[in-house]
Each structure stands twice: as structure tokens, then as C-alpha cells.
From TrEMBL:
A Pfam family it matches: RNase_T
GO molecular function terms attached to this record: 3'-5'-RNA exonuclease activity; nucleic acid binding
Protein name (Swiss-Prot/TrEMBL): Exonuclease domain-containing protein
Region (Disordered): 51-70
Record-annotated Exonuclease domain positions: 134-304
Record-linked PANTHER family: 3'-5' EXONUCLEASE ERI1-RELATED (PTHR23044), 3'-5' EXORIBONUCLEASE 1-RELATED (PTHR23044:SF61)
Annotated source species: Linum tenue
Keywords: Exonuclease, Hydrolase, Nuclease
Length: 338
């Protein structure tokens, strides 16, 4: 299918996304109170950690304003143009297209003046790479949002759809129709998806562009760390995909931050937040976009990260591989989501 034709289909299918910008909460949880004692922290290696979770701010009792309506006087949330995130949008001069789809990854994440004026804790990392994979058999989507912890802003994104290499074309078509057809983005996936090896190469070029990684060093990130909603993405799925793709596990995937564990030890909620949706409900933050569309989940996780930074959370590495082994993983917190 020609690119312009496929984008037209994508345009029509995505108009319904605008209706999701104002979510409804049927029931909002009661206010949480902090526990009287600090959570137990196990320091398994020499890293500097400031534990500020003994007196975290209380979780809110009323819904937070939605960035769909309160950012900078009239800003309204819009779905990302997924051709744009792949670097293939040719409608940047089309006013109708620009009115419906977002082409700026930073606007929706701007914090309020009050949040920016709070006293923020020093962070070990200048940058956080918010990362949320999609695809249980093979990776189908590889979205990353780059947060500057000093300015508490999103400065860039990297987003690629990933084409499986160990599945038949028929199985891939069925898989994508089942996964992305319900979102209306199966066509853009077919138009843009690349093999995992190529995606990693492009991602490394993007890291180099932002001075976050150099091949000649030991392969670890420079002043940055991955943030995931759970351990599965980096602990399990990336190594599994590397085996399928017949490539070595990049060493920058040897440590990561599980936001669930940081959230648990910072806010000490009475009810464990075992996923993104629960964290957002407890923080009274509306979930925007489509759940399990990777780029939208990554955007929502980034909003949680920024909220926690504004509330004074210190966000350390919570898990790392022992000697680079994909099987042996150490965890920072004893009090963690299992």
C-alpha cells in the first residue's frame, strides 16, 4: 500500500482516540497515610541512595487536573502521529492532520509552576529512559521517552515498531491484527516495522546523539538509566529477544529501575500498586491514550515519573544483573512488588 494511502486510513481510524482524552474514574481510592517506619532497604552494592520515603507527601484525595486541558492555556491531549515517531510522516504541512495528531513529545508533560517550584531531591541520574515494550512472543514495539531530571521535562522520544523474525508471515499478520487492529494502527505497524537488530542499531545511534552512550566504553549508559513498570521488560523480554535475533545482550540492559518498587517504598500505600493503572488511580491521574499501545503506556509512565520527581522521590537503580549474566539478577529493595 502506498504510504499516503495508508496514512489516510490511519488518520480515519485514529480520530476516535480524541474521545479518550478525558477518562472517567468510577471509584477513587481513599487517602493513603505513610507507615511509621522506613521501608527496609538492602544495599547489595556500593551506590549512593538517599531514602526519603519516611515522610512522603500524602497521595491526593481529589483528581489531578488533566494535561488534556490544563497545560499552558488551552493545550489538549492528542494521540501521537505514529508515522512521525518512526520518522516517516509526510503530512507536516497538512493543517487537518496537525490538528488531530501530536508531533511534539514534550508539550503534554509540562509540570505546573507550583510543581516546578517545590524543593526537588538530587538524583543520581541526569536522564531517565522510560521504556515499555509490547509483545509477549517477540517484541513488537520499542518506545522510549527521555526525561531530564534536572529540568523535569521530556526532551525526546525514540519509537519503533519491531518486526518478528522467527514467525511466519501468516502468523505475524494474525498477531498484529489481534494486537494492533483494535487500536487502528495495524497498517502503520506493517508500513514501518523493522527487525529487532536494526531497531537496536538505530536506538544506539539515538543514544550517541544524546551523549548517553559510547561504543568504545564499557557499554553502560552515561548519566542515564532505564525506567520500566516492572522487571519483565529488561529482565526477561530483551534477553529473550536477543536470543531469537541471534545477537548479544547490549550491556546497557544490565541494570534498570523498576518504578513499581520505587513507588512502593516512597509512598507506602496501604494497597500495593501492582501496575501502571493502579498507580495512576492512587495518584488521581487520568490515564490518557490506549492501554497496551506501547507509546501511550510509555507516555503515561513518564507522567508518573515526573509526578514522583515533583513530590520529592529519589529514583535509584533497583535491579542489576550479576556479572552481566542474564539469569542472575540482584534487587535493591526487600520491600518490592513480586
Amino acid at each position: 500500500m502506498a504510504l499516503s494511502s495508508s496514512r489516510s486510513s490511519f488518520f480515519l481510524l485514529h480520530q476516535r482516540f480524541l474521545m479518550r482524552a478525558v477518562p472517567v474514574f468510577n471509584s477513587l481510592p481513599r487517602r493513603f497515610t505513610a507507615k511509621s517506619s522506613n521501608p527496609k532497604v538492602t544495599v547489595l552494592r556500593s551506590i549512593s541512595i538517599q531514602n526519603h520515603s519516611s515522610s512522603p507527601p500524602p497521595l491526593p484525595t481529589s483528581a489531578m487536573p488533566s494535561p488534556a486541558t490544563d497545560n499552558g492555556g488551552g493545550y489538549r491531549w492528542k494521540p501521537m502521529c505514529l508515522y512521525y515517531t518512526q520518522g516517516k510522516c509526510t503530512k507536516m504541512d497538512d493543517p487537518a492532520h496537525l490538528q488531530v495528531f501530536n508531533h511534539d513529545c514534550s508539550e503534554e508533560f509540562r509540570l505546573s509552576e507550583g510543581e516546578l517550584q517545590r524543593e526537588h531531591k538530587p538524583q543520581k541520574f541526569d536522564y531517565l529512559l522510560v521504556f515499555d515494550l509490547e509483545g509477549k512472543v517477540e517484541i513488537l514495539e520499542f518506545p522510549v521517552l527521555l526525561i531530564d531530571t534536572r529540568t523535569m521535562s521530556v526532551v525526546d522520544l525514540f519509537h519503533r515498531f519491531v518486526r518478528p523474525t522467527a514467525m511466519s508471515e501468516q502468523r505475524v499478520d494474525e498477531y498484529i491484527e489481534n494486537k494492533y487492529g483494535k487500536f487502528g494502527v495495524d497498517r502503520v505497524w506493517h508500513d514501518t516495522a523493522l527487525p529487532f537488530v536494526e531497531v537496536v542499531q538505530q536506538f544506539e545511534d539515538w543514544l550517541i546523539q544524546h551523549c548517553l552512550w559510547e561504543k568504545k566504553q564499557n557499554g553502560s549508559l552515561n548519566r542515564a538509566a532505564f525506567v520500566t513498570c516492572g522487571n519483565w521488560d529488561v529482565k526477561t523480554q530483551v534477553p529473550k529477544q536477543c536470543v531469537v535475533s541471534k545477537m548479544k545482550l547490549p550491556p546497557y540492559f544490565n541494570e534498570w529501575i523498576n518504578l513499581k518498587d520505587v513507588y512502593l517504598n516512597f509512598y507506602n500505600p496501604k494497597q500495593e500498586a501492582r501496575g501502571m493503572r493502579t498507580m495512576m488511580e492512587q495518584l488521581k491521574m487520568p490515564m490518557l491514550g490506549s492501554h497496551h499501545l506501547g507509546i501511550d503506556d510509555t507516555r503515561n509512565i513518564a507522567r508518573i515519573v515526573l509526578r514522583m520527581l515533583a513530590d520529592g522521590a529519589v529514583i535509584p537503580v533497583t535491579a542489576w544483573r550479576d556479572g552481566g549474566s542474564s539469569e542472575s539478577v540482584n534487587f535493591l529493595y526487600k520491600n518490592r512488588i513480586r
